[in-house]
Design goal:
Mitochondrial carrier fold, single chain, O-acyl-L-carnitine transmembrane transporter activity, 2 domains, mainly alpha, Mitochondrial carrier, 344 residues, membrane, MCP_dom_sf, 0% strand, globular, transport, 11 helices
Length: 344
């Protein structure tokens, strides 16, 4: 009986050693017992752990940098559309006949540069916003994999992609809310003949902080989460699913057609559901202090004054922007990731 037990322990050690050598990733999650493991293997574990941690850090940095590159691409392509959308959402009734009229008035008043009014805040802010968003998305996916060690498929489900997308919006809002607050105020100034109130993004932040501290700077955060949570869920899920359908199985090459189309459709999917909370966010962030007591109060007053249709103001420019801006975003992200994988 004693000999059988010793034999069993010996076989157990052999099996553990075999598993460790064949699948180092499995070994990382295996709970080793130092009393039965050979000394050599136990001394190798910290090295494996160190290598894995280093690899994880490198991947996080790549996700962060790639997201920033994608953000810059999105701003350069999409800002004129975004300015048009914001002005339609915040202007008093009758100020514009439509999106084309917004563009005409902007060009007549400020020339071509008028379409890029307020571009500095998103360039300064969208870069870290997208960097944080794509880093948080990849981190959320890693957490989902870690929470489901016995999963049958390496691919995440649509629901899991959506969950990772929703989670990515939470840390991103810490950067998004103040940046969008400054951007909106710069975009709407002068549209009602009120003249120029702010000299630039830093002047906006200085005035907001003097007016009400961080509470004023972060006004509209709830509306931002209401927009970006569900929006990011649809955004990332749509991209992953469409790109997966268009990419040959097992291919590791950058499929430009798949990336551009999937990225564009991801933007369309996001803005299809994000416009109503975006309208409320823009109104809350551009209105004088005390106009609205919160997100729901803004929704109630907006519907009472302008009808339910007001919640869809700016849909045209948002959709016109959605495809090209987000195609550029994902192209920037994927191309920069490939570049970093090749040279770093």
């Amino acid at each position: 009986m004693g000999r059988n037990r010793e034999l069993g322990e010996s076989v157990g050690v052999e099996r553990k050693i075999k598993i460790t050598r064949q699948n180092p990733k499995f070994a990382m999650g295996y709970r080793f017992n130092p009393s039965i493991m050979p000394e050599k293997d136990s001394t190798q574990t910290p090295a494996v752990e160190s290598k894995t941690a280093s690899s994880s850090t490198a991947e996080s940095i790549k996700s962060f940098v790639a997201g920033g590159v994608g953000g810059i691409a999105a701003v350069l392509v999409g800002h004129p559309f975004d300015l048009t959308k914001t002005r339609l959402q915040t202007a008093p009734p009758g100020a514009y006949k439509g999106a084309v009229d917004v563009v005409k008035q902007a060009l007549a008043r400020d020339g071509a540069t008028g379409l890029y009014r307020g571009v500095v805040p998103p360039l300064l802010g969208v870069t870290p916003i997208f960097a944080v968003s794509f880093w948080a998305y990849d981190t959320a996916k890693a957490l989902i994999y870690a929470a489901t060690p016995h999963r049958k498929s390496k691919e995440l489900s649509v629901a899991e992609y959506a969950a990772a997308g929703f989670l990515s919006a939470i840390p991103a809002t810490l950067v998004t809310a103040p940046v969008e607050r400054a951007k909106v105020l710069l975009q709407v100034q002068g549209q009602s003949g009120s003249g120029t109130q702010y000299k630039g993004v830093f002047d906006v932040v200085k005035h907001l902080y003097a007016e009400g501290g961080l509470r004023s700077v972060y006004r509209g955060s709830v509306a931002t989460i209401a927009r970006d949570g569900p929006g990011s869920a649809a955004y990332f899920a749509a991209y992953e699913v469409i790109k997966g359908m268009m990419t040959p199985a097992g291919s590791k090459d950058l499929n430009l057609g798949a990336v551009i189309f999937a990225g564009g459709m991801a933007g369309v999917a996001m803005w299809s559901i994000a416009i109503p909370p975006d309208v409320l966010k823009s109104r809350i962030q551009s209105a004088p202090t005390g106009t609205y007591s919160g997100f729901l109060d803004c929704a109630r007053k907006t519907i009472a004054a302008d009808g339910v249709g007001a919640l869809w103001k700016g849909l045209g420019p948002a959709m016109a922007r959605a495809f090209p801006a987000n195609a550029a975003t994902f192209l920037g992200v994927e191309a920069s990731k490939k570049f970093m994988e090749k040279y770093f």
